[in-house]
Amino acid sequence: MFFSNGSSRTALIGIVGTLYLGVLSSPAKAEAPVSDLPIILAEAPVSDSPKVDGAYALEGETEQWSVHGQSTYIVQQKNNFNSPYYGQNSLLNKSEGGGGKSYTLSATAFLGARLWEGAEVYWNPEMFEGTPFNGQLVGLGGFQNGELQKGSYAPPIYYTARAFIRQTFGLGGGKEHIEGGPNQLAGNLDKNRIVLTYGKFATLDFFDQNSYSHDPRAQFQNFALFSMGAYGYAADSKGYTYGVVAEWYQDDWILKAARLAMPTIPNTAQLDYSMSQDYGNQIELTHEHELWGKPGAVRALYYQQHAFMGNYQNAINQAQQTNSTPDVTSVRKAAQSSWGYGLNIEQAINEDVGIFGRWSWNPGTTEAQTVDISRSLSGGVSIKGSSWSRPKDTVGIGYAINGISSSQISYLQQGGMAAFIGDGALSYKKEQILETFYSAKVYKELFISADYQRIANPAYNSARGPVNFFGLRAHIEM
User: What mean pLDDT comes out for the span 37-59?
Assistant: First the structure.
């Protein structure tokens, strides 16, 4: 159910009032400027290219404001996998004290309004509660639940997820009608245009989009499947950042570029809002096409990191000189650089079946700002249930292979701890992830999903695992 300028004013006031009072009446909880929780990814409620619901501009179909909402609950359990030993950053099995469940609960309001010609403003208040297995997000390269990006919080916390302004400049090329949605007002736009966005949002709101695998609230849940695993990008300890994004839409091409704030200390909450010392740059080129009459897209991404970070080889050298265990946090320096790239494809086979694939790489010489993955290859298929008379249901099957750099391998073999992984020893082998899910529409906009994941060589250690994850997800849109 969606609310727009044609919806009930009473319903709108009730929803906004409930959200507002919920935030005000919640226990005061200030976010520390430095968090001991690691930074990971963020899902994207902002569409890559806005969805077109009409071939021609329609008069009288322009929204002046809108209210949307979502809530998602995910609960997971794992098997008592093989674990001959474990370390500080290991995923624990049941006998080691890691037998409890992991769960997340989120609720988000997407509020938007038009300001002037081509200008829109959005605010997303959000609530989150949840906990990883054994209370901390460690032990895997590709984590099994994308909602765990916000850390471990119980009771729930309330905060602003996004607050940004968007300005669109038309360049002609004909008109198209854009449908309304979360952080997107219905209206008429030039097909060719430049869009500037400034404020607080998530990097993945704009980059690394994919129609079949991008939203852990509705599609694949594993980090290495709903995004490019080796894409290290700007994010605070809840997965959000601050900065500016420029987008240029020209016929079948989309060019995006951004400078975004990174944390002043890796994996903490305090961003460098000046974007002059700790920042990330990224540029992505997308080409939309038709293959055998079916839509598809190819995306190529390049990114840079410039931040206060430690180097794995420097940590190893220091440990040899001092006869100690290497510690990458002890060799952090300002103005360190890293970079990486990624390729992202999607292709519709027919109206119900689509395939996707991603490849990403970074040198892996510095500590992770997102997850501990230096190279990742993933792909899969998404199938709608039309053939069994369930057109709103979806079946997904995906597979990912993750790896890390030689310097990080040596670092872990010598007992070092990375941001998310570290068993105290390492028998290196690439991490392999299989995920399959079935999402069923049960009532209006309520979807229930069953999810299964099998992760072999967790945290790149062939001595441990495999780990089987069994999960249920409930997702509702309002």
Answer: 48
